[in-house]
C-alpha cells in the first residue's frame, strides 16, 4: 500500500521592523494587521444559540407560573420584605427590573428639624425649642470606686527560672552581635587545669611550665574578681536587719495571727531579755504582764504566721523555764483580722486589777479569761 507523501512543512515567514516602525516580511512587503485580517473562530455557534434559547424559554415559563401562582406556590407563606433601605430624601421605583430615581432631594422638612418647625419657609421662634433638648443632666456619682489598680502577677518557680534563662540568653546574644560588628573585643578563653591539654596542647608541648604558670595567673585573677564582686554586693549589718524586718512585715501583712501563753511567776532577767529581743527581731507586737506569785502571768503576741511559729517554739522549747522554777503553756493560737497592739512591752503589775485595766484599754480581756480558765488541755488550739 502506497502511503501518501508528506507535505513539506511551511515555515513562518520572517518579519522585521523597518526604520519607519512598519512590519515587513522577508520579501519586503508590509504586513497588514487590520481588524479584517484577524481570524474569528466561532466554536459550535449554532449549538450554543440553541441551548441559550432553551434556557430563555424555561425562565420565561417559570416567571409566568410564579406570576399566576401555580401549583408549586404556597399562598400561606408570607411574602419576603425587601431588604433595600429607602432613603427619606429619595423615592425609588422598581419597574422592568431597573431602579429609577425620582428626584426629591429637597424635602419639606428634615427629620432632625421636625421637633422645632414644620417648614423651612416659616420663621420659627428659637424660644419655642423644648427645654429638654438643652437639658444637661449632672454626672451621677457611681456607688463603687472606678480607680484602676495594678494587679501584680505571681509567677511560679518554673516560670521565674524560664524568664531568667531567656534574659541571660538575650544578653549573651547582644554581646556576640557586638563582637561580630567589631564594637567589642572578644573575651579571653577561660582555661583551667582540667581543660589545659584539650585547649592549649600545642603551646603546652613547646613550654609546659610557662604555659601552666600563665594559666594559673589568669585563673587566680578571675577568682579574685569574683570574690571582689561578692564583697561589693554583700549587705551590711544594718541592711541585713532591715531586710529581715521587711520580710517579717510582709509575712504579717499576708496573715496576722495571735498567740497567748500562760506562765507561772518568773523573775529572771535573762528570760525577759530573750522574750523582748526575739519579739523585736521577729517584728511582733503585744504585751507581757507579770503578776506577783502565785498568780499566773500572761504573754500576748501578734504578728505573721512564720514569726508566731518561731516565737511559740522559743517559749515552749528553747527557753529553760525549769532553771527559774517556772513553766509556760500555749493557751490560744489563731488567725485575727487586725492587731490590737503597736509594740511589744514587758510590764510588772502589782495586782490583778491593774492587769485588767491595761488589757481593757486594748479590748483584750477575753485572753485573760482564757488564761484563768485554762486547765492544760488542747481543745481550744486552732
From TrEMBL:
What range(s) does the Pre-mRNA-splicing factor domain occupy?
Answer: 50-236
Write out the ranges of the annotated region (Disordered).
1-21
Q: Where is the Small nuclear ribonucleoprotein Prp3 C-terminal domain?
A: 259-370
Q: Which domain of life is it from?
A: Eukaryota
Cite a single GO BP annotation: mRNA splicing, via spliceosome
Q: Which InterPro entries match?
A: Pre-mRNA_splic_Prp3_dom, Prp3, Prp3_C
GO CC, alphabetical: U4/U6 x U5 tri-snRNP complex
Q: Where in the cell is it found?
A: Nucleus
Q: What keywords would UniProt list here? A: mRNA processing, mRNA splicing, Nucleus
| Pfam families assigned | PRP3, Prp3_C
Question: Which spans of this chain does the record mark as coiled coil?
Answer: none
In terms of PANTHER family, this protein maps to: U4/U6-ASSOCIATED RNA SPLICING FACTOR-RELATED, U4_U6 SMALL NUCLEAR RIBONUCLEOPROTEIN PRP3
What name is this protein filed under? Uncharacterized protein
Q: Which organism is it from?
A: Stentor coeruleus
Amino acid at each position: 500500500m502506497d502511503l501518501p507523501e508528506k507535505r513539506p512543512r511551511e515555515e513562518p515567514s520572517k518579519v522585521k521592523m523597518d526604520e519607519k516602525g512598519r512590519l515587513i516580511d522577508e520579501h519586503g512587503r508590509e504586513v497588514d494587521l487590520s481588524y479584517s485580517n484577524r481570524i474569528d473562530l466561532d466554536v459550535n455557534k449554532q449549538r450554543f444559540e440553541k441551548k441559550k434559547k432553551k434556557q430563555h424559554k424555561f425562565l420565561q415559563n417559570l416567571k409566568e407560573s410564579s406570576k399566576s401562582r401555580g401549583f408549586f406556590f404556597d399562598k400561606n407563606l408570607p411574602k419576603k420584605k425587601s431588604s433595600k433601605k429607602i432613603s427619606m430624601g429619595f423615592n425609588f421605583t422598581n419597574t422592568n427590573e431597573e431602579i429609577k430615581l425620582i428626584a426629591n432631594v429637597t424635602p419639606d422638612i428634615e427629620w432632625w428639624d421636625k421637633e422645632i418647625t414644620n417648614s423651612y419657609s416659616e420663621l420659627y421662634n428659637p424660644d419655642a425649642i423644648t427645654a429638654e433638648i438643652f437639658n444637661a443632666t449632672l454626672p451621677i456619682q457611681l456607688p463603687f470606686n472606678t480607680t484602676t489598680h495594678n494587679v501584680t502577677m505571681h509567677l511560679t518557680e518554673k516560670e521565674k527560672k524560664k524568664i531568667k534563662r531567656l534574659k541571660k540568653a538575650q544578653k549573651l546574644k547582644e554581646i556576640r552581635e557586638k563582637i561580630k560588628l567589631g564594637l567589642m573585643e572578644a573575651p579571653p578563653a577561660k582555661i583551667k587545669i582540667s581543660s589545659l591539654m584539650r585547649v592549649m596542647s600545642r603551646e603546652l608541648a613547646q613550654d609546659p611550665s610557662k604555659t601552666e604558670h600563665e594559666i594559673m595567673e589568669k585563673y587566680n585573677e578571675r577568682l579574685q574578681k569574683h570574690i571582689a564582686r561578692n564583697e561589693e554586693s554583700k549587705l551590711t549589718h544594718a541592711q541585713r536587719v532591715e531586710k529581715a524586718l521587711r520580710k517579717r512585715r510582709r509575712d504579717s501583712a499576708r496573715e496576722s495571727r495571735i498567740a497567748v501563753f500562760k506562765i507561772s511567776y518568773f523573775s529572771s532577767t535573762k528570760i525577759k531579755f530573750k522574750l523582748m529581743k526575739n519579739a523585736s527581731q521577729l517584728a511582733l507586737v503585744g504585751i507581757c504582764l507579770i503578776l506577783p506569785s502565785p498568780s499566773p502571768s500572761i504573754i500576748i503576741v501578734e504578728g505573721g504566721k512564720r514569726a508566731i511559729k518561731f516565737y511559740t517554739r522559743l517559749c515552749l522549747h528553747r527557753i529553760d523555764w525549769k532553771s527559774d522554777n517556772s513553766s509556760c503553756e500555749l493557751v490560744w493560737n489563731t488567725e485575727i483580722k487586725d492587731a490590737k497592739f503597736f509594740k511589744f512591752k514587758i510590764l510588772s503589775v502589782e495586782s490583778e486589777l491593774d492587769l485588767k485595766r491595761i488589757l481593757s484599754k486594748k479590748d483584750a480581756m477575753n485572753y485573760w479569761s482564757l488564761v484563768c480558765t485554762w486547765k492544760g488541755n488542747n481543745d481550744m488550739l486552732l
